[in-house]
Amino acid sequence: MKTLSRDLSWLRFNARVLQEAQTDTVPLLERLKFLAIFSSNLDEFFKVRVATLRRLTKLKKKTRAKLGESPKRQLKEVLAEVARQQEEFGATFRGQLLPELNRHHIHLLTEAELTDKQREWTARYFEKNVRDLLSPVALDDTLHHLFLKDQAVYLTFFLSQPNAATSKAKNKHADERVLIMELPTKRHGGRFVRLPDEGEERYVLFLDDVIRVGAAGLFPAYQQVEVNAVKLSRDAELDIEEEVSGDLMEKIRSSLAKRTTGFPARMLFDPQMPKEVLRAIKQKTGITDEELVEGSRYHNFRDFFGFPNFGEADFHYPPRPALPHPTLPRTGSLLAAIGQRDHLLHPPYQSFDYVTRLLREAAADPRVSGISITLYRVASKSAVVKALLKAAKNGKQVTVVVELKARFDEESNLFWADKLKRAGAHVVFTPPELKVHSKLLLITRREDDETTRRYGYFSTGNFNESTSELYTDHGLFTADERLTRESAAVFEYLRDQATVPELHQLLVAPFGLRSGLCALIDYEIKQAKKGHEAYIILKVNAVEDEGMIAKLYEASHAGVRVELIVRGIGRLVPGQPGFSENISQRGLVDRFLEHSRVYVFGHGGEEKVYVSSADWMTRNLDRRVEVAFPILDESLRAEVRHLLDFQRNDNVKARDFENAFIPAVEGEKPLRAQEATYAWLKGQKRRQRK
Fold first, then answer.
1. 474 plus 351 within the same structural domain
2. Does residue 41 have a known ligand-binding role?
3. Could you please report the per-residue DSSP string of 241-274?
């Protein structure tokens, strides 16, 4: 079966991010942000994927053989593609964005480009604002081990040619010193320093270069001070269960039991760095040549998220304030509105505040007896958790399923879990082998007639106010007993994993999502074989699972039309004669991160539409609790399809499987899905009045 490598497919996605930085119709400072996103993505890729591949290469040969593909060969291919993209990244920054900044009278200077006047100003700035933040450590015999923090930029100082009055050394090497320190970006308040304007010309300097200007004053006993930069990415310690399972998992777990915690995955270094400095760092850290990657003079381009904005509107995307919802009240009871009908929410086009408002209302409502919720990632100052804390203090039975294995959010989730426990909430931690990725909220209320009613919220996105402004998601508010009863059964399963619930509406992993999807695909295959219209439309972040890919190939071969809208990993190879000629694939990268998952099946003219938290990856289908929920309301089902059609017909930001932009055909108007979505939702209230 023909598939694309998972890692190379992911790198293709990051190449699409880089394309946005290269697109001149994207506002200038937004292009810089896409470079920052590309850099941040690549850091995570090294921490997770490259680190995992390196660990797999260290397994015994017999164990490695059972993995199928050779991790050594995979690693070689991946690093070659990373090197190619890094070269393109540098060319984009130096050849496109820096000249464009200059054209708009913005100059990102290096230390060597400073005029005498600017150098004097920078030296004064260093003495007043930076010098006291520095604490270099000498890499000499008194230091036995050097620990470099993950993702932090360090500056190295190579001191040579001591002044005659201070030197007592009898040989060259004794005259040289190597020191290192973390770049104090956070304590300084950012990575960039604005210099005084000169007329309409504006100047910016890296904090690194401010320190280079002041470095001679730090070490007056030496005539020459060379300053360079390094950055280390450490193994994120992704559980190897993400890769394999079963008997092989036991062998690998045993093989890796003694692996080094936080093993270095990559150390970027300035190619101009003196050999003496690199040798000293390797000696003190234990980093080997295998982890060394030649970088540039500056690291951590994710810091460009904090590049000065200069207050010019044209440098940024136009404002897109979150829209009011057409059927949910701006004031008054949300529970009452949900009790009357279902409502779909579409962050970030519509405000996530409806979710936090609902939680605050439930916390204060004396008739609400219980609140259950799954938390995967929450905001740092979470309004969601604050509402849950209030509910617990008000005597509600609050059940919170907290995922402790949410990558890079473990510490934050532990913090909130502890606060919730102390407030009296029942906090559920799932077993290590089961990650809860579903996004569910269930509120239980005693109605005026003394009956008990449940109110639910099912979503593709996290209960996180911060990411809700950046990620496109769908959320369903409903009191439909067919859905809320099954949501309650899922929460019961999460409490003890004792009994797999019997479900008729929800498709829930790990016990029913894969089989449910296969059954829906089989139905389309049967329809196609009968000569009837048969189609599948999938919008997901990733299509990686080989079993599901094989099923889609089978559907294509039977004559089912399959349309894929894949943001990230897409291992399926579309358009190939004999097995995938009826499959097309496109991806969308734009202002907002596409995050919603939608599954559409023709189903013999009675179209079924599911919205889900799950991608088509093995881990989502088999090793996570995921929920796909049907849109039962006919008008809302049409709404999801209408928004999905914008994605299917985008001819501005959509790319094909080979990452080529999909152009408009002759006579076709430009259609940019995210802009069209905002405009359509903005007019929704007006259309309903008519």
1. yes
2. yes
3. GGT--HHHHHHHHHHTTTPPTT-EEEEEE-TTS-
